[in-house]
Amino acid sequence: FISEGIPLIIHLRCILVTVYRVMVKENLRVLLLLCIFELKLSFSPATQVEDTVNLVKRIEKTGIAAIAVHGRKKEERPQHPVHCDVIKAISEAVSIPVIANGGSHDFIKEYTDIETFQKATAASSVMIARAAMWNPSIFRKEGPFPLKEVMQDYIKYAVRYDNHYTNTKYCLCQMLREQLETAQGKKLHAAQSTQEICEAFEMSEFYEETTAVFEAKKTSLETKQQDEDDQMEDPDVIKMAVRFDKREYPPQITPKMYLLEWCRKEKHPQPVYETVQRPLDRLFCSVVTVADQKYRSALWDKSKKLAEQAAAIVCLRTLGVPEGKLCEGENHLINKRKREDQECLNNRDHGKDLAEPSHKKANFAEESSDMNVPKLQR
Ligand SMILES: Cc1cc2nc3c(=O)[nH]c(=O)nc-3n(C[C@H](O)[C@H](O)[C@H](O)COP(=O)(O)O)c2cc1C
């Protein structure tokens, strides 16, 4: 539970954990279902513990696998003492595992305290939230690392993994806690970037060095990218900087359809699309071959589909053929479709043919998946 970061639960709020086994294609998989619900019940003070225990017993009977209990009453706040006796009473009354929670403030200062809390509650395990935020090395058996060291290590991870500064700041504030009023705490509070956080912890040198390495890496990748783009520079390919924008076309009408229609009319073989994907930004570029001439857009697209449409546009524009845009006015493909739909309806009325209109058959099918697109070699 701790490692998965599943939220813990307050006294009289219960997590029900049920394990189901399901067979999926001969592999036995285990699904862990968490049913979380809040029980906002008011027991009379005299029978509170008894009522709580009875409630948990009833919940146990529903078949749950475990229960987490936060030893506080509904009206109590996190800084109030945890009621180990109530958790203990529950632990002793049920046979499913009880996970004790709520001990960060009073109990858990180091690893051995986790065991103390477990013993005090007779629980089978312990869930920890705040103590782990205050010093994540709480789980170190030999004792926690000094906070200063932990914070510095944390900042290093945050810089290396480009963590958002607001999140870094929040986590560091949790660690600093009482020291937030110190000069360092105030600097942290005022920080508006990772760089400023590093300054507050006298780690500017680390920040500069690490970001310089990243910048160099970025430049080198961009240069590599340029080289790869240059490799794609084939003087025989006709290029234009165009993108396909669906909004500029009537529904279900695309440049690829127009190009296919044109090829059929001109008795050319149907267009052949070859698409590649750039590993760096995962963008796609498609080259379409029509009548032995290759065409491509100079711009890279987010999907294979878009890249193919863009290549078709380049081809159609070069040939001076309409591409089906709304602004082109009369759309012969739409008219053709309407005629086909009408024919189909007429046939249906006469009970002749229950087939779909021709454009819904393979004619205009645009099978285009991003899967199996070759990646550019580095
Ligand atoms: C940052 C943070 C987020 C939490 N989010 C939830 C939550 O989403 N749902 C919930 O039931 N409890 C939540 N809690 C409460 C804890 O799960 C836990 O019950 C409480 O902190 C008591 O445990 P502790 O003494 O180990 O901190 C959160 C606590 C913290 C510190």
UniProtKB/TrEMBL annotation:
Keyword Methyltransferase: no
MF annotations from Gene Ontology: tRNA binding; tRNA dihydrouridine synthase activity
Annotated Basic and acidic residues bias: 347-359
Gene Ontology CC terms: cytoplasm
One Pfam family from the record: dsrm
Region (Disordered): 347-378
Sorted UniProt keywords: RNA-binding
Domain DRBM: 254-321
Keyword Hydrolase included in the entry's annotation: no
InterPro entries: Aldolase_TIM, dsRBD_dom, DUS-like_FMN-bd, DUS2_DSRM, tRNA-DUS-like
PANTHER family tied to this protein: TRNA-DIHYDROURIDINE(20) SYNTHASE [NAD(P)+]-LIKE
Identification of the protein by name: DRBM domain-containing protein
Species assigned in the record: Pavo cristatus (Indian peafowl)
